[in-house]
Amino acid sequence: MNRTPPARPTGAELLAAAARARLEAAREGLGTGPVYWGLGVAVVVGDLDPTSFAGGVVDFTRTIPPELRDGWYRTFTRTVFLAGDPAGAAARHPPRHTTAQGDLAWYGPARRGALGPLSRLLRAFQGPAPIETPAGPLTVTVPGTPSGHTIDATVATGGVTTGEYLVHVHHLIAEATLRELIGPGDTLRLNHRETLHAEEFRGVLDPLRAGSVQARITRDGSDGDRLRLYGVLTSNRQGGH
């Protein structure tokens, strides 16, 4: 008897399965030591250069001490973005990391109370809509001995505001770095496209590939009833989570 082959998952089903895999990974944590709960990060944005921002996310995440990494990962790398002068803010609140250009500064991971004074000093960052990005790929070299590894990431920009872009890219790159999908000496290549169709990324969204893939999936900003794929990062390193 001939059996009908199982139907291929739809795009919505692919996104739902990948989102569940991320949720389960965050619940399991990194397994790197004690867990400090309720941690978040704040970023002071003076100016936005996408290359500087992407490199800054990697560099900041690599500075986080081991005892804070798991707690932040388990809160889904919660981050707030604040508009202001990083140098002026640093005079009163020393940051953990600042980009070489001085246009971005990172604080935390810390509990909300520790970040409260900074949040009260500055307003939430908004930025223009839609986000303006270069036509070609951005390339970031992670400090360290050249590894020969190239990490490819693609981010959706259609209908995305500057503030939303910061959120999506920060989650994507920070979580990949915490999971060691991005390492010292790697090259990160970041592409921007209007829309990312789940069917096009069917292979990498398979939960069986989760060990080498980071995806950014959340509610569609224009339709809260459906999920949208905002970013995909693939690595030839094998993460543990």
TrEMBL record:
Pfam families attached to this UniProt entry: DUF6182
Family matches, as InterPro entries: DUF6182
Lineage: superkingdom: Bacteria
Identification of the protein by name: Uncharacterized protein
Organism name: Streptomyces inusitatus
